[in-house]
Specification:
14 strands; alpha/beta; 7-stranded mixed sheet; Metallo-beta-lactamase, Chain A; single chain
Length: 246
């Protein structure tokens, strides 16, 4: 299995998971040109994509969905409330949360999480290896930790450095939202979650804030908590990450 985060931030989010038989994208927060250019860097074409899975309806996760659907007719998959509140003009496959479904050889379980959208989900993706994707959430609760136990790869939010956020220029209401249970994970929360659910894995630090964090702070904080047990990979607002093969 190959994993690459094509981009992750409040500007847009999209992740590629690829096997010999199946290629899927998680979220479509960029327009097709960016997706096409990013996929070409890792020897993948948009025509190879078997499905696009949507986590929730915020713009940075669905910005390019309609145009990508029109261009490639790729199936989109999401839950009912996400579709209703996205106002997307496409016809998706609809799942119920916790209902495992397949995309070719991949088994996928959508897990409801806490974020300020209608019905956001994380995804557990199982092929020859197991991958967890959770990029926007205020807390990691017990059910998510149960599903994310002992995976091979994690794509997990490490959004903000709490001190930078509190001392930054964001208005008070926005700081409160980010710090709430329906906001975003801090570097510390990311590290503590990883330490609790697994003893070692490849980890992509996702949705790193451009205003309240730095890649170095995110990586250093997580490593201070987890030690040397994890292989940490950074993600970027508009550039592809490492390609991890497991």
């Amino acid at each position: 299995m190959e994993i690459c985060v094509l981009g992750s931030s409040s500007s847009g989010n999209c992740t590629l998971i690829k096997t010999k038989r199946t290629s899927i994208l998680i979220d479509m927060g960029f327009y097709p040109r960016y997706i096409e250019d990013s996929l070409s860097k890792i020897d993948t074409s948009p025509e190879e994509i078997d499905a696009v899975l949507i986590t929730h309806e915020h713009t940075d996760h669905i910005r390019g969905a309609e145009s990508f659907f029109r261009r490639y007719k790729t199936p989109f998959v999401m839950n009912k409330l996400t579709f209703q509140n996205s106002h997307l003009r496409l016809i998706p496959a609809i799942f119920d949360n916790f209902q495992r479904f397949r995309v070719n050889g991949l088994k996928i379980t959508p897990i409801p999480i806490m974020h300020d959208s209608s019905n956001p989900v994380a995804y557990l993706i199982e092929g020859e290896k197991k991958i967890g994707v959770a990029t926007d959430l205020g807390v990691t609760d017990s059910k998510l930790k149960t599903y994310f136990k002992d995976l091979n790869v994690y794509i997990l939010e490490s959004n903000h450095d709490t001190e930078m956020l509190l001392n930054g220029e964001y208005p008070a209401f926005l700081k409160k939202r980010i710090l709430s249970d329906y906001g975003h994970l801090s570097n510390e929360q990311c590290g503590e979650t990883l330490k609790e659910v697994c003893e070692g894995a490849d980890v992509f630090l996702a949705h790193i804030s451009e205003n309240n964090n730095t890649p170095e702070k995110a990586k250093n904080t997580v490593e201070e908590i987890t030690g040397d047990d994890f292989n940490i990979h950074l993600t970027f607002p508009k550039n592809v990450s490492d390609v991890v093969k497991v």
